[in-house]
Amino acid sequence: MSSAATSPVFDPLACSTANALWGAFTIEGLCRVGVHTFVISPGSRSTPLAFAAARHAKVEAIPVLDERSAAFFALGVARRQRRPVGLICTSGSALANYFPAVVEASESGVPLLLLTADRPPELRACGAGQTIDQSEFFGRYARSFIEVPLPEASGPAFAQLGKTLARSVRTSQGMDPGPVHLNFPFRDPMTPEVDAPAVADPSAVASHLPTAIALQSEEVPMPEEAATFASMQAHTRGLIMVGARNPAEEADVFVEAVLQISRTLAWPILADAPNALRFHPEAEGRVIGHYDALLRNRTLAKRLRPTAILQIGQLPTSKVLRQWLEGLSAKLWIHERRPRNVDPLHREATILRSALPQLAAPYGEAPNADSSSWLTDWQCAETAASATVDEVLAAKAELSEPALARFLARHCKQTVDWIFASSMPVRDAEYFWPPGASRGNCFSSRGANGIDGTLSTALGTAHRSEHPAVLVSGDLAFLHDSNGLLLAQQLTGSLTIFLINNEGGGIFEHLPIARFDPPFESFFATPQKVDFKQLVSAHGIPYSGISDQDTLIEAVKSIGRPGVRVFEFFTDRKRDRQFRAELLEAAAAAAAKALKP
Question: How open is the CA angle 109-40-539, to the nearest 5 degrees?
Fold first, then answer.
C-alpha cells in the first residue's frame, strides 16, 4: 500500500477545495466497489486524482513515468486479478499513449478504468497548452465514455458522481468486459489548500458514496442450450477447440468445465498454449498439443476429420489448423459469452451463451462410450508426435527456439504464470509445449496479437502474484517496450525473462517475403545490434547469458527469486526456421506411422 496513505479519506486537506474533495470521493468510491490498484503517471492537471490515490490507505498507488508502460502494466494486473485497475493521467497527449493497451484490453476483455484529467470547457479548442479533444477518444475500444462534470461541492453532484463510478465499474466487468473511459475536467487550483475551511461536510459527502455493485449473473438459465448440448452426444467424432482465453470464471473453474464436457462426450481438446488447459495435471491424455504437426500430414488430416466441433471462445492461432477447418463440413457450436463474432472462417454455427460450468454440469455421469476409439486415435497420434519431438531435441546439441519452449515445459516444476511474447515465442509454445508437463496459467496478450507492451504487461502480471512469472520474449518485442524496464523497481513479486536474441524478427522468416532480399532483411527482419547486457544492467537488473543446457538448467532453478532477472541466449533465426519445419514434419510422420492399421 502507499506509504503516504496515513490520513482519513475526507480529512481537512481533502475537504479544502472542490477539486481535492472530488478526487478523494472518486478514489474512495472506486475502492468501495472493488478497484484497489491505481497506476498513475505524473502531470499537473491530474493532481486531484493522483493526490487522493497516493494518500488513500486502502488502495495501492503505483507511479509510472511512461503512460504507455503504465497502461500495459495495469493490463497485466487486471488480467491476472480479473478485476478493474484504475489508470490516471494528465491532459493532452498523455492519454494517447494508453491507446495500444486499450486496444488489447478491449479485444481480450480485460477491465480497465481510464481516469483522464482534462482542461475545463472554456480552455478547449482555443489554443490552450496541453489540450486536445479527449471526448470519445478511444472510440469503440472503450465500452463506455463518460464526461464527468466539473467538481462541485454539493450533494446532488456527489450523488451523481457516486452513481457514475459504480456504473463504470459494473460496465467494465459486464458481459462484454473491457476499458471504460471517464474524463475529468478540472479548473485551477489543482492542489489542496492548507488550513482552509472545509468546502462541504465530510459526513454528508460520504453519504453519497457507492456501497456495492451487482454484476450481471453468470448463471443465467438457458435450458434450450442444455438440450442443444445433449444433441452433441449423438456425434462420436467430435472435437473441442479452445484458443487464448481470458475466462469470466476463475481459471480452475473454466478448465474443469471444459474437461467435464470432454469426459462426457469423449472428444479430445485442441487447446492453444495461451490457455490454462495446457497447464492442468489432467491435460496429458485429453488435451492435444501437437495438432499443428499432426494436421501437416495429409493422411492424418483426412483420417482425423470430425463430424462435430465445439469451439470455446476464439480459435487457436495455428494457420494449419484453420486451413484444415475450412475444408470440413462438421456441425459447429461456438460458445462465446461476449457479444462478438469469434469465427474468422465465417461458418454456419449455433451460438451458446450459457455460463460454461452451467453448460457442462448436467452431464457428468453420462460418458459417451461410443467415441472411445476416436479419442484413442487422437491420443495415439499425440503420444507419437510428442515422443518424436523429445527424441529429436535430445539428439540435437545446440540450443534453439523450439528447444527452449520444450525445455521450460519439461524442467520447470513450479506453478508459474507464463507469458509468451507474440510472434515466434507464442507459436513455439503452441507447437511444442506438451500438455500437462508444467503447472500454472498463461497470460499472453492474444487479443490484438501485437508485440506492444510485452515487458510492461509481464511486470503487471507478476506484480503481487502468488506465483512467480516467466516471460519468454524475442529481442524485438523486448526492445519495443524497453521503457518497461523502468517498472522493475515497482515490482513486488518475481519475473524471470528468457530473452531470445536472434537479431531480428524470426517470424518473418516463415513468410513468402523472406525470398526477396533486398528488401527483406532491412525492412522485415529489422536486425538489431543492441547490447542487452548493458541495457538491462543500466536499470540495475541482474543479467546472465545462456550458452548451453547447464546454464539453462541453472536459470530455470532461479525462477521464483524476488525481483526481475534476464537470461539471454543467441540463436540463428534462419537455422531455427529450417529446424522448426523439420521437427514438425518428423512429429507428423511418426504420428501417421503410429496410426497405420
Answer: 100
Sign of CA dihedral 521, 524, 526, 527: negative
Contact 310, 238 (CB under 8 A): yes
Residue pair 64/41 in contact (Cβ under 8 Å)? The answer is yes
The 8-class DSSP code of residue 361 comes to: G
Which amino acid, one-letter code, is at 69? S
| Residues 509, 515: Cα–Cα separation, whole Å | 9
Q: What are the beta bridge partners of residue 415?
A: 439
Topology of the domain comprising 223-384: Rossmann fold (3.40.50)
> Distances from the Cα of 450 to the Cαs of 96, 481, 540, in angstroms?
17, 12, 28
Whether 520 and 513 have beta carbons less than 8 Å apart is answered as yes
Domain positions in the chain: 18-206, 223-384, 401-570
**Lookup result for grid cell 456504473:** 167
Task: Classify strands 238-242 and 308-312 as parallel, antiparallel or unpaired.
Answer: parallel
**Whether the Cβ atoms of residue 24 and residue 9 lie closer than 8 Å to each other:** yes
Q: Which CATH number describes the domain made up of 18-206?
A: 3.40.50.970
Please check whether residue 244 is in contact with residue 446, taking contact to mean a CB–CB distance below 8 angstroms: yes
Q: Look at the pTM and tell me if it is higher than 0.85.
A: yes
pLDDT digits (tens, 9 = 90+) for 397-455: 788 999 999 999 999 989 999 999 998 999 999 999 999 998 999 999 888 888 899 99
CATH of segment(s) 401-570: 3.40.50.970
Contact residues for 127 (Cβ-Cβ < 8 A; gap 6+): none
Q: Do domains 223-384 and 401-570 have the same CATH topology?
A: yes
CB burial of residue 155 (10 Å; 0-12, 13-18, 19+): middle
Q: Which uninterrupted H or E stretch holds 331? A: strand 331-335
Amino acid 453 reads G
Beta-bridge partner residues of 239: 309
User: For 20-57, what is each residue's pLDDT tens digit?
Assistant: 999 999 999 999 999 999 999 999 999 999 999 999 99
Side-chain-side CA neighbours of residue 202 (13 Å): 14
CA 487/CA 456 separation, integer angstroms: 7
Task: Give the whole-angstrom CA distance, residue 396 versus residue 411.
Answer: 17
